[in-house]
Amino acid sequence: MPVLQQRQVARYAISPDEAKNLKVRMLDWANQFSIHIFLDSNSYPSRHKSFECLLATGVIDSVDNATSDPLAHLQHLHNTRKDWVFGHINYDFKNELESKLHSEHPAKTGFPELYFFVPETVCYINADQTVFYIETFGNPEAIYLELNQAFVEPQALPKLAFNAVVSREAYVQTIDKLRAHIADGDCYEINFCTEGYCQPAAVDPLHVFKALNAISPAPFASYYRLDNRHMMCASPERYIKKHGSKLLSQPIKGTARRDADPATDAAIKERLQNDIKERAENVMIVDLVRNDLARTCNTGSIAVEELFGIYTYPQVHQMISTVTGRLKPDTAFTEALRYSFPMGSMTGAPKHKVMQLIERYEPSRRELFSGTVGYITPGGDFDFNVVIRSLFYNAATQYLGYQTGGAITYDSIPAQEWEEMRLKAWALERIFA
Fold first, then answer.
1. Given a cut of 90, is residue 1 above it in pLDDT?
2. Tally of domains in the chain
3. Is residue 3 included in any domain, yes or no?
4. Is 82 a catalytic residue?
5. Which of 94, 210, 242, 253 is catalytic?
6. Predicted structure pTM score
7. DSSP readout, 194-215?
8. Does the annotation count 237 as an active-site position?
9. Gyration radius from the chain CA atoms
10. Catalytic residue, candidates 237, 281, 359, 362
């Protein structure tokens, strides 16, 4: 491996008002690179936020799932480089982690099971939106000048109609079958999702992301290009974060629509807070996350910092809990990923059984949906989202699709589950209406 020179770092004072325009220029400048990731917190206040946004472009080194143990290779890459690493893990990477699991449905977007890269350039805005940083093996001043001149002409999105892989009738019938599994004791809760798609769809993914991020700004939004494959993500959910030895996971279970009338909206929010079914769903996943984190954390360090917190987003209210633990000394940080992936909020409990049922009953391969995208810092901290509320595009085949669903318990009402799934789907489809 060639020895790289040290990254050059430049800092620029900005205001929060300037940060908004700077994000647009960051996206426009990055459009020239065939591989890049943009992560945006969209100014959501959070004591757990480390950055307002990050951008990684170019590839110096990488690791994918072609190796025998990709997570071990990821750890080795970081140990060797001591540098920024960005990338993703597909939901179907579960098959690498659990030998008895498999995915039979065909892949449509084509993201590899795992891909991480050391970028040539990293740009980021601090959490307070007062400083913009460029860290690069190139010339940061030249990049700053290029970035400030970057401009991609705005473009209206085409009108598109999406096809549902599963009809309302079939969806409702499947929910009843899953409830029967729960009644038989096979599982307690299962996340069931289905696909909507349009093909052929001639779209510019950058403009799709800009439109989605404008109408559905989210604290874990991301735009990811990996050659011809694109992800446009408006996720409200964190999968797992590491800061020092502290691990933090924030599963979402519980969704309610917004209303334009403030009084009605407040009443909907209060009903969600007190909904017995939503609380039951949430606490089941909290217990699962506690068990997952306990596999790599110090005994006695697991804590639930917040239970049943209600957070409001443009289209929905969400019930979010926060679980923390302390990573055992001398434990590779990738072990925290190995023993908690895929995230419990997108599987159900018990995890191994419900992943088998998901493969049996879901009509489509999940791929990057309900996987994760994120970053690792030079010091070994990381932050990863849950890839939901997302559109996926393969420019070679012009496939544009998404998947949405929800958590099913015995008390689930199939017709209401259909309506919740469609609420999430409409938040994505509406930008093409």
1. no
2. 1
3. no
4. no
5. 253
6. 0.96
7. EEEEESS----HHHHHHHHHHH
8. yes
9. 21
10. 237
